[in-house]
Amino acid sequence: MGCMGEIMMDQIRIQTRAPLFSSQWDPMITTLPGLYLITVGILKPFILLLGVDTACSVAGLRLINILFQAGTFYVLRAIYKTIHSTPQADNKEADKVALVTAITLTFFPLLHFFTFLYYTDPGSTFFVLLMYLFHLHGNKTLAAFMGGMSILFRQTNIVWVIFMAGLSAADVIQDWMNNHAHVKKKDKTQQAPLTDGQTFQSFLKLLFGDFKHAPQKLLRLIGCVIMQCLYYIITMVLFGLFVHLNKGIVVGDRSQHEACLNFPQIFYFVSFTVLFLGPYMIRPSRIINFILFSVNHLTLTVGFLAISYAIVNKYTYVHLYLISDNRHYTFYVWSKIYERLPQIRYALIPSYYYGIFSLLQTMKYKNVFWKLVFIICLFASTIPQKLLEFRYFILPYLLYRLNVRFVSWKELALEVLIYFTVNVFTIYMFIAKPFKWGDNVDLQRFMW
Fold it and tell me: Is 0.70 topped by the overall pTM?
């Protein structure tokens, strides 16, 4: 089969290789065929009814991601309400906040931009968020199934299946600590909440205590963790089998998809998040607290700066695509800032420190286990990537943002303004500023 019509940029690379249009799989495609299988499932009945030229069109393909994005809106709203609902909350006000937050995140610039192109991001995001929603509601079976569906869109989504398993384990561990006989014997008059460090120290003390004196309790804990994570573990085992048979995580051409230890990716993600969540992250009171924290914890501050300098110096990787493809905004971020001013990558280290401080402060209400699981999965999803690609930040950003508590309508309005401004700029650049590569007759367009 074939589809006629003007196709923009990378769409031609994907559309002409989709199984809906071709019986052969192009080795340049490096993700599993989830998007194409969903496309076939949705469009095939219309093809049979209306004919290939009507249903099998550029508009038909783009409709798939618009449908995904519509579903993502409802999932975002449900997740936000589930996370932030409290018995004492004003239900009408909470519903309004959840609705506006969901609308706002639906227009998150990177996700919104790719909604109108035939890319895997909207579908990948939809299934990961749907997995999170089912997990929050305690339906681990459906959550694991949705996690498996998300992997069919992007293999690296296995990290977010592990995230759900980690959250399940964290809940079991927290309950075990709360109900531990040693904890119950403590003076109940001590109402001051434990710090993250104290909580983790208490966990280790209880863990080693049971290991030494009551190993059967420790085995019971491990059994509970396995049972709560069972369906996620099954998904992980199946994925491990796929990796073994495929001899790697990437399908197709692997030449430009080699894993490395690109530790500065964490700094790029932190900068990305702080900029988009500026109203929550960059506030005078937070800046003052950061300065006081840095001075009061001078050893930690100096240690962070020294380690970060070494990381940036030794582990900064530059992918060929980053310096050769001038359609993407990352090309200009790198060439105009990092490459033109080599020392800027070191000068930005204090801002990374502030960003990490601010991100952790915003999640202060979360327990230490939630934070550890998120940080581990954030590391796993970003550090192995050699390419600086903002699309890799969509899922960790949304999962983090959904857990940010409502502050006031002012912050939310400013967040809307940031998203709106960026969307107007990127869509304008995409539509109104096409360009050509040398003798190539095809128009190229600016994109994320």
Answer: yes
